[in-house]
Amino acid sequence: MNRTTIVILGGGVGGIVTANHLAKLIPRENEIVLIEKNKDHSFAASYLWLMVNKRTPRQVTSPLRELVDKRVNILFEEVKQVDVESKTISTGKSKINFNFLVIALGAELDKTHFDKQQYGVHNFFTYEGARKLNDELQNFGGGNVSIVISSLPYKCPGAPYEGAMLIADFLKCQKFQNKVTVNLYTPEPQPLPVAGPELGNSVKEIMISKGIGFHPQNRLTTVNYSERKIEFESGSSVKYDLLVLIPSHKAPEVVIKSGLVDESGWIHVNKDTLETKHNNVFAIGDVTSITIPGRWQPDKPMKLPKAGVFAHSQAFTISEIIASRILNKESKEIFCGDGFCMLEVGEDLAGFAYGDFYGSPHPDVKLKRLGKIWHWGKVLFEKWWLAPIGFRKNVLQSLLKVGSSVLKIPVKL
Ligand SMILES: Cc1cc2nc3c(=O)[nH]c(=O)nc-3n(C[C@H](O)[C@H](O)[C@H](O)COP(=O)(O)OP(=O)(O)OC[C@H]3O[C@@H](n4cnc5c(N)ncnc54)[C@H](O)[C@@H]3O)c2cc1C
């Protein structure tokens, strides 16, 4: 058998799962190279807890090397060029040829409003942002908190709503009840439009019960730092004391330059196999754009949400496909569009939304009643995800034991 090189770009959710799963599936003579610019991996779902003091910065990060199978060669370098014609990847330091390529570079965030903390502008979509927002929330003197979704699409459709609820709860606990207002502004018609009206209404009701104002169909145009004012396309404006912005997202520059993006600005892939228009070149996770059945506005087709849960299961699919091609076996593996989300609502409670996002005529997503069990499920996943790869099984078993005794639910190990 010829030696094959699989290059994975990006050591986030999709890249880590692909590297580890491929390491189990393909014979050792084949090389797996993972290229990632950061030595430490942070778990994005935990930024919400970091923001409201429920985690320390150390608790939400791990060295990437500890999370990835030893046989995977990790290059801690920045990808500068992707050339699918010559099958070469260039970083500042190396040039690597590939037989199979997996692009898992995620989404790039617009940094325009980063480092504007002196004007009360924050975000919790980055590790650094969540850390600084935590400082701000602890020292906040009260006033109007505005959470604003800058533009669509953004990763994790539930995150801004979870963030708003956690911030409202945190400030309530700081005994600010009458000195704080929390409002969320979004260009969307409802929370999580992809998940349908039932789920959107449930989230809206929970927010209202927490005293959070919900303002749909508001498109942000300007942030006036000196006056601490935000302006919307409709002409209306709002004064803020603390502005929490969900930054605009786009495909990383290196991906745009590669010529792989379509008119959506993201990589178009086959929705079942995640293969791009180039043979043996795959893209997974946030960097892709996958149209799914249904429309959330007459001119707006639904897109598969950008979420870790999809990056994770797509990574399994493509690993199976790549392994079967290397081993000259037939593969029937496809990504089926199933996904779920534990939606944090504060007070250690979460909802659980799950469903078939490829369902026709529109995604079929259901919400389970709020419960502590979903919150603890998310905590469990966090601990498992950030545990060194060799200890993951033990961590999972101990946590399940603790979880089952705390929740008084019998769990078979
Ligand atoms: C606050 C928050 C909460 C969230 N909560 C959830 C949740 O509860 N459930 C859920 O399913 N999803 C959640 N998500 C979304 C989830 O984190 C992302 O959808 C997921 O990480 C996408 O995986 P990915 O592999 O596509 O990209 P990423 O995980 O973002 O990985 C991309 C990697 O590529 C690297 N990279 C980028 N450019 C280069 C380059 N040029 N060279 C080298 N390396 C590069 C980056 O450093 C990064 O490590 C949340 C996100 C946020 C921000």
Find the CATH topology of the largest domain: FAD/NAD(P)-binding domain
Mean pLDDT: 93
- Secondary-structure class: alpha/beta
Number of strands: 27
CATH superfamily of the largest domain: FAD/NAD(P)-binding domain
CATH level-two architecture of the largest domain: 3-Layer(bba) Sandwich
**Assembly classification:** single chain
Radius of gyration: 22 Å
The N- and C-terminal alpha carbons lie at a distance of 39 Å
Strand content: 25-35%
CATH class identity of the largest domain: Alpha Beta
Contiguous runs where pLDDT drops below 50 for at least 5 residues: none
Counting DSSP H or I runs of 4 or more residues, the number of helices is 10
Helix amount: 25-40%
Number of domains: 2
Strand order, biggest sheet?
Answer: 5-2-1-9-21
The major beta sheet can be summarized as: 5 strands, parallel
Task: Indicate the overall shape.
Answer: globular
List each distinct ligand once: flavin-adenine dinucleotide
Task: Report a brief summary of the structure.
The protein has 413 residues and is of the alpha/beta class. It has 10 helices and 27 strands. The protein has 2 domains: 5-107 and 251-336, FAD/NAD(P)-binding domain (3-Layer(bba) Sandwich); 110-248, FAD/NAD(P)-binding domain, CATH 3.50.50.
